[in-house]
Amino acid sequence: MSRISVFAVFVIVLASCNPSNKPGRSVKFQQYFVEGEQLYTLHCSNCHQKSGKGLGLLYPPLDESDYMQENLSDVICLIKNGSSGGLVVNGNKYNQSMPGIPTLTDLEIAEIATFIYNSWTHDQGIIEIQQVTKMLQECNTGS
Amino acid sequence: MVFVAVAGLISSCAKTEKPLPIFGQREVVNGDTVYHKVANFQFVDQDSAFVTNETFKDQIYVTDFFFTSCRTICPIMKTQMLRVYEATADIPDVKLLSHSIDPEYDTVALLHDFAKRLGVSSDRWHFVTGVKDSIYKIAQTSYFATAMEDKSEPDGFIHSGAFLLVDKEQRLRGKYDGTKEEDVNRLLVDINRLRKEYE
Fold first, then answer.
1. Residue B72 CB partners (closer than 8 Å, separation 6+)
2. CATH number of the CATH domain containing A44
3. CATH code at B22-196
4. Which range, of B45-49, B67-71, B140-144, B190-194, averages the lowest pLDDT?
5. Domain residue limits, chain B
6. Do B75 and A55 lie within an 8 Å CB cutoff?
7. ipTM above 0.85, yes or no
8. How far apart are CA B59 and CA B38, in angstroms?
9. Chain B residues with at least one Cβ partner in A under 8 Å
10. I need a surface site. Which of A64, A142, B42, B174 has the fewest CB within 10 A?
11. Closest by Cα among B178, B76, B80, B109 to A95
12. Considering the entire predicted model, what is its pTM?
């Protein structure tokens, strides 16, 4: 391959990259985001959709969510432990139970959180594994 | 030369007018072909109304098998079925029928809430519950779809993600993967092809 075509491929690859490619984001952020996107597609997108829009009043949206904005530690706990009591997002009550995924590691949860908190309307920056570990220790699993 | 051109023309016309297949066994009785049809059924929908073969008289319908607590393929199927619902909003003779394969858990009240949350009307989309064995039997023998209990599965059931297209004579005319957007696109095209048969 000539130098020009290698360059062209490189440009195309760069251009096709997802919104993680924001200027000023660290390599670590990019890694978290890309891994998080794959985990999200595997574990979350069935219900919450790839678009993050959820489904009707059955599965709450993530793309615009006051609940996410106000309850980071609850979201971290939800991903690990699930929820069955119902919750209110953007003024709507959702009552389907969400299964937790207890097999996820703290790192994987940090990656998912970094993805969802920096996609669609969100721009929260990286959510580090240390933060996640601390939040998980404080989950209220009794309720 | 002329013959080839004419043959080419004919075959290109025939291609666009080719009817949808008719699924299942057929037999010839007194010179008439008798096709496989959906067996008689009676279920109850989200409004506690009976849903029978009569409900779909002079109607084309699309049907599937799911359960509300399913977390694997059902949400994708419901997303896709919602596309069918929206795409057929202005077509009076197309209806949707979703059977619960967990009818003991999926009560009328629960299905009512589910449909309401999905934002759909029982005039066009029936969510039905009923006797479990009747639902499994009609899935397998009438619609050639898989639906049964299996405790080894994560949610306790195995079922196909198929959408089935049924014509006004209650014959099966198409089978689609309800978890794949492209396959559901094909269903939407086929609904219009099927409607043309009745024009």
1. A46, B154, B155
2. 1.10.760.10
3. 3.40.30.10
4. B67-71
5. 22-196
6. yes
7. no
8. 13
9. 68-69, 71-73, 75-76, 78-79, 82, 113-114, 116-119
10. A142
11. B109
12. 0.82
